[in-house]
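Design a sequence for this backbone.
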């Protein structure tokens, strides 16, 4: 009998709806690599299911509530009828090849291990944040979904991107091209999400939930999404050099805030001529300085959170390029008394030679005593310029925002 003929008869004999459960049990055993020498049992079998099995085996069955079918007897009946040489051939004739689940699982596990090992070759792999990032991707199913979708290369690409960070004013398409060979790779999921999750872990921050937050996080690592969107807010910062210098000087003379873009700093370089500059984090401080001090305010720069590429570019123009002593202006830097504020201050000290401005343990204690404060959130940071500060913050578990220190800050900024 031809295979087509046998298949047609197999459908009549074993393909009845009442025997679907039996075929599924056999396929399941084969896919798991389980032996086919026992029996399978169906609890609560219908009379039709019992009748179908009796007809298949050619013998009457009891009337109990459970139906037990010995698999060797099924195989013997199919072989005697000339339909199949074994149970695997029979079920594959009905439903196609049976997947080898054990082999597929072993192959999947091997791919998973290779992918993770590749990610661990990142130059940051010894860092706690990198290890936590990989553990999180494994635990929440992200890695499994990537592998099943055939996107395991995305994790390797994310590692290549991280190897190039932090950078200095590196446009996102350039970063993508250097890391992956594709200028658009960091604009198309899943790669940007993987990298941003790592960067958030790196900074001890929450995963950004909107475009502005994502831009700020990229900015924090020297990656520029848009040189028009990368901005810095200043007050009282006169400068020489082209139209931008004139605008800054005029704004300083009027005591009005002025916003500078990275594009302006790149296309119209300026040279601020000031002996010292103060840097705050919150625009409320700069707004209060503009209202109370106006043109008498000392040069003030506001980072508006994590410093942007424009902010770093401006400060580097004031003090000189990193690592090159110039005897330029002094930079007095502060942020909120939270873990992000400690990190940005430590970065400013290392990158710009900044001096902490009212960022001591005593300043924190005074601010803490002035009223209620919100809880500290995120990963703790160190305060190398005053170790007691971080210790007091950790002990109190409360953040003190910059706005609470406005009177003292304005006193420092007064002319």
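Sequence:
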């Amino acid at each position: 009998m031809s295979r087509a003929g046998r298949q047609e008869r197999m459908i009549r004999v074993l393909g009845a709806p009442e025997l679907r459960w039996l075929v599924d049990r056999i396929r399941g055993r084969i896919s798991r690599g389980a032996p086919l020498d026992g029996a399978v049992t169906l609890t609560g079998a219908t009379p039709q299911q019992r009748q179908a099995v009796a007809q298949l085996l050619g013998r009457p069955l009891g009337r109990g509530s459970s139906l037990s079918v010995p698999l060797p007897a099924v195989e013997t009946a199919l072989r005697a009828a000339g339909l199949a040489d074994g149970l695997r051939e029979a079920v594959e004739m009905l439903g196609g090849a049976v997947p080898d689940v054990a082999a597929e699982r072993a192959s999947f596990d091997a791919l998973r291990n290779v992918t993770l090992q590749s990610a661990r070759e990142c130059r940051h792999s010894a860092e706690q944040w990198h290890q936590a990032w990989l553990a999180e991707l494994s635990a929440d199913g992200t890695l499994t979904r990537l592998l099943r979708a055939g996107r395991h290369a995305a994790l390797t690409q994310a590692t290549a991107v991280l190897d190039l960070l932090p950078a200095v004013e590196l446009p996102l398409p350039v970063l993508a091209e250097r890391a992956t060979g594709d200028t658009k790779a960091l604009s198309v999921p899943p790669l940007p999400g993987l990298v941003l999750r790592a960067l958030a872990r790196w900074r001890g921050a929450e995963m950004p939930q909107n475009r502005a937050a994502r831009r700020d996080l990229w900015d924090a690592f020297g990656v520029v999404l848009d040189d028009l969107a990368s901005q810095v807010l200043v007050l009282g910062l006169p400068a020489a050099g082209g139209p931008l210098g004139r605008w800054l000087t005029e704004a300083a003379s009027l005591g009005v805030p002025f916003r500078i873009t990275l594009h302006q700093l790149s296309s119209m370089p300026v040279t601020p001529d000031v002996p010292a500059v103060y840097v705050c984090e919150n625009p409320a401080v700069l707004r209060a300085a503009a209202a109370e001090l106006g043109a008498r305010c000392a040069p003030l720069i506001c980072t508006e959170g994590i410093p942007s590429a424009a902010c770093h570019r401006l400060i580097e123009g004031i003090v000189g390029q990193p690592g090159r002593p110039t005897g330029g202006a002094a930079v007095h830097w502060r942020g909120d008394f939270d873990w992000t504020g400690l990190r940005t201050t430590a970065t400013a000290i290392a990158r710009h030679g900044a001096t902490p401005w009212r960022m001591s343990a005593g300043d924190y204690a005074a601010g803490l005593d002035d009223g209620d404060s919100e809880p500290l959130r995120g990963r703790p940071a160190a305060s190398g310029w005053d170790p007691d500060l971080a210790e007091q913050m950790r002990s109190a578990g409360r953040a003190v925002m910059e706005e609470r220190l406005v009177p003292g800050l304005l006193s420092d900024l007064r002319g």
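Residues 321-326 have pLDDT under 50 and may be disordered.
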